[in-house]
Write a structure and sequence with these properties.
membrane; mainly alpha; 19 helices
Length: 439
C-alpha cells in the first residue's frame, strides 16, 4: 500500500488497467472459459482481454464459438469496467462501504474520466453510473424482446443484454458469426444500436448537460463542440460511404437501405466496431475515410478512443486563427485556454507519431499490404474494433503492438504523457528568445 501511495495518480490508473487486463486474461485462459474442443493460447487470451478492457473489440477468435457462458460473462464484466472506467466503479464501491473519498481518490477519478476540475467528481460518478445503467437497461430490453423472434426467450434476453452493454461501451464484441451482417436491413436493431453507440460516444459530461438542458437552457463550449463535430463527422462519413459504395458494396440495396447501411458504418467507425457490411469488400477510398474517422474517434470522457472530437476542433480553430492573423483562438463568443490549445496539438502529434511507428513495425513483422495494416492500426488506435480479417493472423509482435495501442487509446494520450511529466515549477530564470524559420 505504501508503494502505491508513492506512485503518481496516472501511474496508479495505468497500473490498474494493466492488472485488470492480466487478471481477465488469466480467467479467459482457464479451460472452463472455453467451449469443449476450443483452444486458446495465452497471447490470444491476453489480446482478447486487452481488447475488452480498452473496449476495442478486435478479436483473434470468434467470441460465440470459442468462449463458454462463463468466458462470455468475463468478457461482459471486463468491457463494462473498461467502458465506465475502473475508478467510477471503485468509487461507488467505496461509497457503499462508507469510505471517505479523499483528495488522492479524486485525482484518480479526475484522470480516469479525463476531467478538468476536481469539483463535483463524486456527483459526476453517481450520474455516470445511473445514466449507464438506465441506457443499457433500455437497450437490453428493446434488443432482448426483439431477439425473441429468433431465439428462445432466455437466450434472447442474454443476447440483448450483451449487445446493449457492448454497444454503449463501444466494445465491438458480438455473439453472432459475422457481427451484425445478418441484421443489415433490420431497422429495429440498426436504430437501437446506433442510439446506444451515439450515447456512449458523445461523452458523459455532454449527456448530463443534455439531460439538464430543459431547466438550464444552455450548453458549455465543450458540449457544443462535441455535439457539432461528432454529428458533422457522422454526416460526412455517411455521405462519403454512400457515394463511393453506391455501385459497390451498396449496389443491391434499396435506396433507403443504402442510407441505413452508410449511416451505421459511418457511426460505428467512431469507436464502436460493429459492422452491417463486409469491410473487406469496401473500396480503398472508403477504407481510408473510415481509418480517418477511427483516428479521430469519439468525444472525451466517453467509452470511445481516438484523438477525440474536441482535439480535432481545437486544432482546426487554432489553424483558422493563425490563418486570420489573430493570437486568440475563439468560437461561439468564447476564447480557448492556451493550455488546451497546446495540449490538443500535443495529443494530435502524439497520435500521428504512434500510428506511424506502429505501421513501420508491422510493415516489417507482418506479410500483409499496408492498406490492411493501416486499417487495423487505426481501428486499434480509435479503440474501434473493425477489422479486415487479419487480426488473428498477426504475429505475436503484431498483437503486442496492437495491445499497446488499444490500451493507450483507452487511457488517453494526454494522460499517458503525464506519466513522465514532473510537477510544474515556476522558472527562476528564462533564456533569451530566438526566432526560428518555420514551414
Amino acid at each position: 500500500m505504501k508503494f502505491v501511495n508513492k506512485l503518481k495518480p496516472i501511474q496508479v490508473i495505468v497500473g490498474g488497467y494493466l492488472v485488470l487486463t492480466l487478471l481477465a486474461a488469466l480467467l479467459l485462459y482457464l479451460p472452463f472459459s472455453r467451449k469443449p474442443g476450443q483452444s486458446l493460447s495465452f497471447i490470444d487470451a491476453l489480446f482478447t482481454s486487452a481488447s475488452a478492457i480498452s473496449v476495442t473489440g478486435l478479436t483473434v477468435t470468434n467470441t460465440a464459438e470459442t468462449f463458454s457462458l462463463f468466458g462470455q460473462i468475463v468478457l461482459l464484466v471486463t468491457i463494462q469496467l473498461g467502458g465506465i472506467g475502473i475508478m467510477t466503479l471503485g468509487t461507488m464501491i467505496w461509497l457503499v462501504l462508507g469510505r471517505k473519498i479523499g483528495l488522492r481518490d479524486r485525482l484518480l477519478i479526475q484522470l480516469d474520466q479525463n476531467q478538468i476540475s476536481l469539483a463535483g467528481l463524486v456527483r459526476l460518478v453517481r450520474s455516470i453510473l445511473v445514466i449507464v445503467l438506465v441506457i443499457e437497461a433500455v437497450g437490453a430490453f428493446i434488443l432482448g424482446t426483439y431477439f425473441m423472434r429468433f431465439y428462445p426467450w432466455h437466450e434472447a434476453l442474454y443476447m440483448g443484454l450483451f449487445h446493449a452493454v457492448a454497444g454503449f461501451t463501444h466494445a465491438g464484441f458480438d455473439l453472432f458469426d459475422n457481427s451484425f451482417l445478418v441484421f443489415r436491413h433490420d431497422y429495429v436493431v440498426n436504430v437501437t444500436m446506433m442510439a446506444l453507440i451515439f450515447c456512449g460516444a458523445i461523452g458523459f459530461p455532454v449527456l448530463i448537460e443534455l439531460l439538464q438542458y430543459p431547466s438550464r437552457r444552455r450548453l458549455s463550449l465543450h458540449s457544443k463542440l462535441s455535439l457539432i463535430v461528432y454529428v458533422l463527422l457522422w454526416i460526412i462519413g455517411t455521405l462519403f460511404i454512400l457515394v463511393i459504395e453506391f455501385d459497390g458494396n451498396l449496389k443491391h440495396d434499396a435506396w433507403h437501405e443504402k442510407i441505413l447501411v452508410s449511416a451505421f458504418q459511418s457511426l460505428t467507425t467512431r469507436s464502436a466496431g460493429f459492422a452491417t457490411a463486409d469491410v473487406r469488400t469496401f473500396q480503398l477510398p472508403t477504407l481510408l475515410m473510415m481509418s480517418l474517422l477511427m483516428f479521430i474517434g469519439a468525444s472525451p470522457s466517453s467509452s470511445g478512443g481516438g484523438i477525440r472530437t474536441t482535439t480535432l476542433a481545437t486544432v482546426f480553430f487554432a489553424v483558422r486563427s493563425f490563418a486570420k492573423g489573430t493570437k486568440e483562438v475563439s468560437v461561439f463568443g468564447r476564447q480557448f485556454d492556451p493550455a488546451d490549445v497546446r495540449k490538443a496539438f500535443v495529443v494530435a502529434v502524439f497520435g500521428v507519431s504512434l500510428l506511424v511507428t506502429a505501421l513501420l513495425i508491422l510493415s516489417v513483422t507482418e506479410p500483409f499490404e499496408l492498406k490492411w495494416l493501416a486499417f487495423e492500426i487505426a481501428s486499434a488506435f480509435g479503440t474501434c474494433g473493425l477489422s479486415v480479417g487479419i487480426t488473428g493472423e498477426l504475429s505475436s509482435v503484431g498483437k503486442v503492438v496492437l495491445m499497446v495501442i488499444m490500451l493507450t487509446g483507452r487511457i488517453g494520450f494526454g494522460a499517458i504523457l503525464l506519466m513522465w511529466r514532473d510537477k510544474e515549477k515556476k522558472a527562476l530564470y528564462s533564456y533569451p528568445k530566438e526566432r526560428l524559420i518555420i514551414g
